[in-house]
UniProtKB/TrEMBL annotation:
Residues in ATPase F1/V1/A1 complex alpha/beta subunit nucleotide-binding domain copies: 1-154
Transmembrane intervals: none
Domain of life assignment: Eukaryota
Matching Pfam families: ATP-synt_ab (PF00006)
Family: Belongs to the ATPase alpha/beta chains family.
Coiled-coil annotated spans: none
Protein name per Swiss-Prot or TrEMBL: Putative vacuolar ATP synthase subunit B
GO molecular function, one term: ATP binding
Keywords: Ion transport, Transport
UniProt GO BP: vacuolar acidification
Keyword Nucleotide-binding attributed: no
Amino acid sequence: GISSIDIMNSVARGQKIPIFSAAGLPHNDIAAQICRQAGLVRQSEKGNVKDDHEDNFAIVFAAMGVNMETARFFKQDFEENGTMESVCLFLNLANDPTIERIITPRLALTTAEFLAYQYEKHVLVILTDMSSYAEALREVSAAREEVPGRRGFP
């Protein structure tokens, strides 16, 4: 796993963990690594930890405002490592319309709720590049002539 997450920020069910990154750092690699290594851990009857991720676990991955190279990286990485079978992938490219960038996280969360409530799966949702989402919200609020929030992000 990722040591800093495993030791200081272990993910429990229902928990949200933001991962902040500066420009030029490998945040896409970290998101892909989290997706590759994600799974359920349960206690077995003997007290040993067993990995139970194949039974009822799904991942919803949404990337907003990414370029074609990054989208290809995510798709290729998930296919090569065999995680594509359990991943529902939403890719919003940088040249897609702004409104699609706003809808992408909502579609991802709706899909996660559907998998959780209809199929009783444990779902991990990974949303990457929230700054692109915030910029899309700013563009829409400017087009509607609304007062934007602090620093231009609603």
